[in-house]
Design goal:
Length: 171
């Protein structure tokens, strides 16, 4: 397990860089903040960019800003920004659109109950999954009720590994 964070100002970017984070996660709310995207990209570290509530044109612009900085270490995450989000809103097939349009690694930032959306994203080629984790769904706060407790998270990881085996090599 490695530490990283989503910076929301330039000072936080510099602090995280100084602390040696191995990657930057950018929330979907910052996808049109091109100055920030370029600033982070110039740090030369991998970037994970959530795309919730974004148009394909906005995603395209963000990808171009990052690529122009010389950073090609980008992963796009499909995301539904409702917390929790409904399974029928997941639109996992956007991963196929991203992979085709940008020839880029994809993943899913999931706020649905259970692991169905995570498994679907892996089946469609997603390589990164963001899933909220909690020690107890009963803890106070907005994220705990739709987060996974340790046993659920462990089961999700085991099911992803089985799915990866089932997907095979394609030959």
């Amino acid at each position: 397990v490695v530490f990283s964070s989503s910076p929301y100002d330039f000072e936080a970017v510099d602090l995280l860089d100084k602390l040696g984070v191995p990657f930057f996660k950018i929330g979907s709310g910052e996808i049109t903040w091109h100055e920030m995207l370029g600033y982070i990209a110039k740090k030369g570290k991998p970037m994970i960019l959530a795309t919730g509530d974004s148009t394909l044109a906005e995603v395209d612009e963000a990808v171009r800003v990052i690529e122009r900085s010389g950073n090609n270490q980008l992963i796009l995450l499909q995301c539904i920004t409702n917390y929790p989000s409904r399974i029928e809103s997941a639109n996992i097939r956007v991963l196929l659109t991203y992979a085709t349009a940008f020839d880029i690694m994809t993943g899913y930032s999931d706020h649905t109950p259970g692991d169905v959306v995570v498994l679907g994203s892996v089946a469609l080629g997603g390589k990164v999954v963001e899933k909220h984790f909690t020690l107890s769904k009963k803890d106070p706060g907005p994220d705990h009720p739709h987060s996974m407790e340790p046993q659920e998270f462990k089961q999700m990881v085991e099911r992803v590994r089985l799915l990866e085996q089932a997907l095979g090599e394609g030959r």
